[in-house]
Amino acid sequence: MITNMSSVREDVAAMGKTMTVFLGSVAAISLLVGGIGVMNIMLVSVTERTREIGVRMATGARRRDILLQFIIEALSVSAIGGAIGVILGLGAAALASWAGLSVGYSFGPVLLAFACAFATGLIFGFLPARKASRLLPAVALSSE
């Protein structure tokens, strides 16, 4: 089999594109699963804290205050998850470097990881936050 450099370059470029699509798909699925996890945590939090929400609303908290409280909590959970992911990723890169593999570090992907974590928290935390902010104080106080 005779090959020339241009066909080798095309093959390498095609493999790179395939790998990019594959890794992008894995990342998208991971974000979706992580987002569903954040949403479930926040929905459980709203359910368990219904009386607290009712007391806050009965003592003057506005819907916006309740909404912001739960959005901030969802963002906090996502930020902690993003930080853990970045630390584990940098640790894996350091381990690969220690094993003799060539590893490059860049600030852009780290920033993108944090941005994706925050966006996931904001998007998937909105529904539970909205549910909490729409509770009626009388109904929330009477629940147990």
UniProtKB/TrEMBL annotation:
The chain crosses the membrane at residues 20-46, 66-99, 105-127. Residues 25-135 form the ABC3 transporter permease C-terminal domain. It is found in: Cell membrane. InterPro entries: ABC3_permease_C (IPR003838), Macrolide_Exporter_MacB (IPR050250). GO terms for cellular component: plasma membrane. The keyword Transmembrane applies. PANTHER family: MACROLIDE EXPORT ATP-BINDING_PERMEASE PROTEIN MACB, MEMBRANE COMPONENT OF TRANSPORTER-RELATED. This is Macrolide export ATP-binding/permease macB. It comes from Brucella neotomae 5K33.
